[in-house]
Write a structure and sequence with these properties.
The chain is α+β, with helices and mostly antiparallel strands. The chain has 4 domains: 106-249, Hypothetical protein af1432, CATH 1.10.3210; 291-420, Beta-Lactamase (2-Layer Sandwich); 424-484; 498-650, Heat Shock Protein 90, CATH 3.30.565.10. It contains 27 helices and 13 strands. It has helices at 4-8, 17-28, 33-40, 44-54, 68-75, 77-91, 98-124, 130-139, 142-148, 153-161, 163-173, 178-185, 199-210, 215-225, 229-250, 261-273, 276-282, 291-306, 343-350, 363-372, 398-421, 423-459, 463-484, 500-512, 538-556, 592-595, 614-624; strands at 310-316, 319-325, 334-335, 354-355, 376-381, 387-393, 498-499, 521-526, 533-534, 561-573, 576-585, 628-634, 637-645. It has a 6-stranded antiparallel beta sheet, sandwiched between helices. A hairpin with a 2-residue loop joins strand 1 and strand 2.
């Protein structure tokens, strides 16, 4: 008998095509993560795919994602576009009848209503993570979505009978914690049984009842949280209006029959315009050192397309070596392709797609199936003859995996040929980009050295020494001008740890002797007494602080000004432990035209000596360490609030 865990692993779920279209438009138009997550949050199937992917070995780092926005930030916009396109492709595979499309629309409305209600209740009752409550509200009835696309009546009923366990199994597999699992498992408990239950369990259970907008839900609100009837009905009314607004923005009718044909036609056209496989293959091309690295990086794209577990083997000398894959723990594995009859070695030798021999599988075949967690496998060679992808399959997925896998490897082979031919040109472009970014960072120490020279001039009266200082000044200016001819900068952060207070103390001494040597400029440090160890390299922290402080000082112009650096620890948000850094100034604020593109590379307003890259570098560095940055600016000054992940020994995961 199929268990709830088996059913929960089936994430090939239908979405409303209108949601996918709108999300694609948002990605292509460069809208913010927040706006994209707002659209994605309205669709249970997309939320499920997103969380399943970001909790996999390919992207799972540190604490799990407890909100859609967290998951999007971890995945990145480009890879999310591929997820959307593959979801669109799957819509072609679903032969849903008219009644089933109606059911899908009604499911969409109910799940969104439940999620919005859960978020509202969480806020009203002061649950610390309203976005987590929203997420669980979207997932609570995922079994219904699986049942809609299940043709067999007996299996459909089996799924509906195990809804709570299916949702609990998914939430557990994503590492969201025992309270989230319990919220799924006990969502249908009677109100009287929930009085002393966990906060999150009560929020989710009540939201499922209130989403039905009946007297039972109103009574449950009084029993579980003591909410008055008038307040409960007002919540229902507001949520209904919000759902209607979201539906209208997506073009989804709620009061008439739902016809998905036009939206599906548009989605099919979008697939023709954006070739799915080519988009996927573009993802790993972020500067690999060689073609083998490009191939192993493409394994994640193949997993995105097929929705199946993938391993990638590449030739190293005479052996085939396991290079990458979607398994949580990849073992060290090398095989000699000259011997044996496994699907892997046969595919490499013959250059053809090979399925595992079910009657007489080799030991290697069985080992790979165990790694993939699948009953069978499909081996797909790349035309270059150096690599093989292995996909975990079963009887239901073999045909689709073969079609998509062969298309993928054909396109990958074409990309490899072009990449090999254009390697010199593309490498030069990457070098140029990196140099431009490095030049920007070099300007920070040059600025400090210039300030030291200014101080030395005022202290030394010897004419000969003044002449020597003039020579140093001229050489510095010449070096600066030469560097400014190289256009961009690349900043990298490592996974080491840094004591933020200690780093700021050292920087403060340097900055007071350089940028703040004038009497009309002041630097204040307000450092908390708690532990401020963060998961970031010292060089990355210094670059962030120097860029922000330098921008503030240069914004003062000839006016007096004050910059304040303040730390706070610990700070808890989204079930994680953070250290907060605030960088504030009382300058004129950031010009309004730049506010809309605050963290993008722009033409600087500060003159020819500035490339406009400072804030984009800050944002990139903070994103690399999975931090958060926000900005408030106005006539009274500018404040940057930065949350840096606390070091691991500070128990960063608070589940």
């Amino acid at each position: 008998m199929t268990t709830a865990t088996d059913i929960a692993s089936d994430l090939q779920l239908p979405s409303l095509p209108e949601v996918i279209l709108r999300a694609l438009d948002a990605c292509h138009s460069g809208q913010s993560y927040r706006e994209i997550s707002r659209i994605v949050s309205a669709d249970t199937a997309l939320v499920t795919r997103l969380l399943a992917l970001t909790s996999s070995a390919l992207y799972h780092r540190g604490a799990p994602s407890h909100s859609v926005e967290q998951a999007l930030l971890r995945l990145g916009t480009r890879k999310f576009q591929t997820l959307l396109l593959t979801s669109a492709l799957r819509q072609l595979m679903y032969e849903l009848g008219g009644d089933e499309w109606q059911q899908l629309r009604d499911f969409w409305r109910h799940s969104l209503t439940t999620a919005l209600t859960a978020k509202t209740l969480a806020t009203l009752t002061r649950y610390p993570e309203p976005e987590e409550a929203f997420l669980l509200g979207m997932m609570h009835n995922i079994g219904e979505l699986i049942a809609i696309k299940t043709p067999c009546p007996e299996r459909k009923q089996q799924i509906l009978n195990q809804q709570n366990d299916i949702a609990a199994g998914l939430v557990s597999s994503w590492g969201l914690g025992t309270m989230a699992v319990d919220a799924m498992r006990y969502q249908q408990a009677l109100p009287g049984q929930l009085r002393d239950a966990g906060h999150l369990v009560k929020v989710v259970s009540l939201s499922t009842r209130l989403a039905l907008s009946d007297a039972v839900g109103v009574g449950a609100a009084a029993t579980i949280f003591g909410l008055q009837e008038d307040l409960t009905r007002e919540i229902n009314k507001k949520i209904g209006e919000e759902v209607a607004s979201v539906a209208a923005s997506l073009g989804i009718p709620l009061d008439t029959d739902y016809d998905a044909r036009e939206a599906r036609r548009q989605l099919n056209q979008r697939l023709l315009e954006h070739t799915m496989v080519r988009t996927a293959l573009a993802l790993p091309a972020s500067g690999p050192e060689n073609l083998s690295t490009l191939v192993s990086g493409a394994a994640s794209s193949l997993a995105l397309i097929t929705g199946l577990p993938v391993l990638c083997f590449s030739r190293e000398g005479e052996d085939l070596t396991l290079r990458s894959g979607t398994c949580r723990q990849l073992p060290e594995m090398s095989v000699n392709p000259a011997y044996g009859d496994s699907a892997l070695t046969t595919a490499l030798r013959t250059g053809t797609t090979t399925t595992m021999d079910q009657a007489e599988p080799t030991v290697l075949d069985q080992q790979l199936c165990s790694l993939l967690g699948a009953p069978s496998l499909l081996a797909l060679p790349v035309a270059t003859g150096d690599s093989v992808f292995v996909i975990g399959i079963d009887d239901q997925t073999v045909a689709g995996a073969r079609n998509l896998g062969e298309l993928f490897t054909r396109e990958l082979s074409a990309v490899l040929k072009l990449s090999s031919a254009d390697r010199l040109g593309s490498d030069q472009q990457m070098v140029n980009d990196r140099l431009r970014r490095q030049v920007h960072e070099v300007s920070n120490p040059l600025t400090i050295i210039r300030q030291y020279l200014f101080q030395l001039r005022s202290r030394l009266q010897d004419p000969d020494l003044q002449d020597e200082l003039n020579i140093i000044q001229e050489e510095l200016e010449r070096a600066g001008n030469l560097l400014l001819q190289i256009s961009q900068h690349a900043a990298e952060a490592t996974g080491s740890e840094t004591d933020l207070n200690e780093e700021l103390t050292g920087l403060g001494r340097i900055l007071r002797d350089s940028l703040f040597h004038d009497d009309h400029r002041e630097l204040h440090l307000h450092l908390c007494k708690a532990d401020t160890q963060v998961q970031a390299a010292p060089s990355a922290v210094r670059q962030i602080v120097l860029n922000l402080v330098r921008n503030a000082v240069e914004g003062f112009g000839e006016r007096p000004g004050t910059v304040t650096l303040k730390t706070t620890a610990p700070l808890f948000q989204n079930r994680r432990r953070w250290v907060e850094l605030q960088v504030t100034d009382n300058g004129p604020g950031i010009p309004e035209p730049l506010q809309r593109r605050l963290f993008e590379p722009v033409n600087s307003t500060k003159g020819d000596g500035h490339s406009g890259l400072g804030l984009s570098i800050v944002k990139q560095l903070i994103d690399d360490m999975e931090g958060i940055i926000a900005c408030h600016t106005g006539q009274e000054g500018t404040a940057f609030r930065i949350l840096l992940p606390a070091a691991s020994h500070n128990d960063n995961d608070t589940d």
